[in-house]
Specification:
By secondary structure, the chain is α/β, with parallel strands linked by helices. The chain has helices at residues 12-21, 54-60, 77-86, 129-146, 171-180, 199-209, 230-241, 252-258, 275-281, 288-308; strands at 2-7, 27-33, 44-48, 64-66, 68-71, 89-91, 93-97, 152-158, 160-162, 185-187, 196-198, 218-222, 248-250. The protein is globular.
Length: 312
């Protein structure tokens, strides 16, 4: 039986991962986080603790032969150092959930795993500018921490994640507009292209990497090869809902002046190649329209529940 330790795992991608992982009969699951959103799942041992407190890592996590540690919430090098150095027991594989924002901007598309990485924080983004650079630094720290300990490491870099439990205003931005019957404004050029990863596909790919020796000491992008644009999103929403949606086309400069909070780039591409992990695991990516249909079903179920609750 595989023993898996999940760091984080109570929100969005981590939660979906645990839900998918628990479907297997040959796995023992332990989840370590601050306990703010309990999972309350059968066969999941929840451990409350703060990863930044070494004593809580050492005292809370049982000493086991861990087949894999899956880290969803490592945001800076110190997070990695404390976890790798202090998890009780033996770790065979450390799977770190990184991000495609570790890459430098490039016109050489799609961006593959060995493309140049950030050499510093991204200017003009404020605090958010540190995110991708800190993730890359964390990847480097993971390699440095794992190699002398004989721990295999795997870095997974998801592109734009969408689906169940998403707390970021991505697909829900559009769902909210549809529900409120408000117009959907999109850039009139319609040229920006980006690719996504459905959260369930991401969970299955993480599971596929557990104990997979060909994934040891490797990095992988998680990104569907289906390119999506703002007009493509509107088209998908129309097909899903069966309604004709007429977006409002607006120049990028006007969108920026009006501070319309569109969730994706207005005038640049974010295109990554997820072919490497697809070849390794032989897993097909879910079509965008299919994933969005599932995301909308979940969104509507949540809205219905909120409306039915006394507070709603």
């Amino acid at each position: 039986m595989k023993k898996v330790l999940v760091i984080g795992g109570s929100y969005f991608a981590g939660r979906v991962f645990v839900e998918e992982l628990v479907k297997g009969e040959d796995v023992e699951i332990h989840v370590f986080n601050r306990g703010r959103s309990p999972l309350r799942m059968a066969r999941v041992n929840e451990i409350v603790g703060d990863r930044e407190d070494v004593s809580q890592i050492k005292q809370g996590i049982p000493a086991e032969d861990w087949d894999a540690v899956i880290d969803f919430c490592g945001y800076e090098p110190s997070h990695i150092e404390k976890m790798v150095g202090n998890v009780p027991g033996k770790i065979r594989q450390y799977i770190y959930i990184s991000t495609t924002t570790v890459y430098e901007k490039s016109w050489n598309l799609p961006i593959v795993e060995d493309a140049p990485k950030l050499s510093g924080p991204q200017s003009g983004l404020g605090v958010a500018g540190d995110y991708g650079y800190d993730k890359w630094r964390s990847e480097c720290t993971l390699r440095e921490a794992c190699e002398p300990r004989g721990i295999a490491h795997t870095c997974l870099r998801p592109a734009i994640i969408y689906g169940y439990y998403n707390y970021a205003p991505r697909e829900t931005y559009f769902f909210d507009l549809l529900r409120k019957r408000e117009p959907i404004v999109i850039p009139e050029n319609g040229l920006s292209l980006f690719n996504f990863i459905w959260v369930v596909d991401m969970a299955r790919m993480i599971i596929g990497c557990i104990g997979e020796e060909r994934a040891y000491d490797q990095a992988f992008n998680l990104a569907s090869d289906e390119l999506v644009s703002y007009p493509g999103i509107v088209e998908a929403l129309g097909k899903i809902t069966g309604k004709k949606i007429e977006p409002v086309l607006m120049p990028v400069a006007e969108i920026e002046r009006a501070r319309i909070p569109l969730p994706f780039p207005l005038d640049e591409h974010l295109i990554y190649s997820g072919a490497k992990i697809q070849r390794l695991l032989n897993i097909d990516y879910t079509p965008f329209k299919t994933g969005m249909r599932e995301a909308l079903k979940y969104y509507l179920a949540v809205q219905k529940k909120c409306q039915a609750s006394p507070a709603g």
